[in-house]
Amino acid sequence: MRSAKDFFRPLAVGAPAPLREVPFRPSRMIHFFDPGNEKMAAKVPALVSEVDVLLGNLEDAVAADRKEAARAGLVKTARATDFGGTQLWTRINSLDSPWALDDLVTLVTEIGDRLDVVMVPKVEGPQDIHYVDRLLAQLEAKAALTRPILVHAILETAAGVTAVEEIAAASPRMQGISLGPADLAADRRMKTTRVGGGHPGYLVREDPGGRAPRATYQQDLWHYTLARMVDACAAHGILPYYGPFGDIQDTTACEDQFRNAFLLGCVGAWSLHPVQIGIARRVFSPAPQEVAWARRVIAAMGDGTGAVMIDGKMQDDATYKQCRVVAELADALAARDPELARAYAEATEEAAR
Ligand SMILES: CC(=O)SCCNC(=O)CCNC(=O)[C@H](O)C(C)(C)COP(=O)(O)OP(=O)(O)OC[C@H]1O[C@@H](n2cnc3c(N)ncnc32)[C@H](O)[C@@H]1OP(=O)(O)O
Ligand SMILES: CC(=O)C(=O)O
Ligand SMILES: [Mg+2]
Asked: Could you say which residues bind substrate here (predicted)?
């Protein structure tokens, strides 16, 4: 483990200094596209204003014989697109694959000045982050980059889940972590065949002796992992995300899964198809009434200490802090999303009347 004194030193001579805090940039949806698929890549310019993050995916869902085309396609798209305030991320191939090294070398040296975050799949422990950290520093120095590229880990192995706190703490480059429910299910030998979401067989049943038939209640397969991931991220000042929801047609269940993640502390989720973009925008933006309420509590609480009653509900230092989380998120999103800014202003005015 690096000494605390060295933690914020660049890992290569000439590499940019690591950031001391992860900047909060809206990332309600990390929109995946295959950069080697010309039809999909052609949609990128039109998606820039629709999404918070565009991610050129090089790993799973890109066939083995299309890996190089995808990498070249991402270089081309990154150079040809004006991303404005929208972030550009990539998901490289896993570190045990023959492609990961070339992914990093090519992308950092050719489009490193445009890349915000590198997502690393199948992270098993801090050693994987340390490997990427040093390599990125060497490549940043070579490419004379002036700002560090951040790293995002996918939690999709049992080893990764058991080491999630160490992964979150492994480097000042760590931006966040996403849940990878498909690979995690396979790695854990769960008996599911889906990408995220619930399962009708994972349930609890009402006790006997009451109504017949006895009611059953579906449980959330992902709650334990997601909650553990959110705590690890919050404890280390990085951002947690729900990952993908694979049943593209089931927009209702997708919305439910995203909302559970939002309420639990996640800042965004992946959109795999254009139909999921609007769902993520709706779910990961606090509702205008919640924002108006949060602003009202903050105004009533003055310096944030003591206790007051608002509409029959006790408010104190702790509810003030919760309201600040909601209000500060709303401010950050409103700065990027004028429609949302209007809705928040209207709801706040209405609540003050
Ligand atoms: C477990 C994991 O690792 S998840 C992450 C890896 N998986 C991915 O990245 C998958 C990304 N998504 C996709 O590949 C596709 O959305 C698929 C294969 C799921 C479905 O694709 P299609 O069968 O083409 O869907 P559909 O016919 O509904 O598409 C409608 C339109 O949206 C386009 N589209 C679909 N997905 C995307 C996307 N992610 N980004 C941009 N455009 C897209 C299609 O090209 C199509 O365009 P058209 O109307 O001009 O023909
Ligand atoms: C997200 C991802 O890669 C998975 O679910 O496997
Ligand atoms: Mg995976």
From this structure: 91, 156
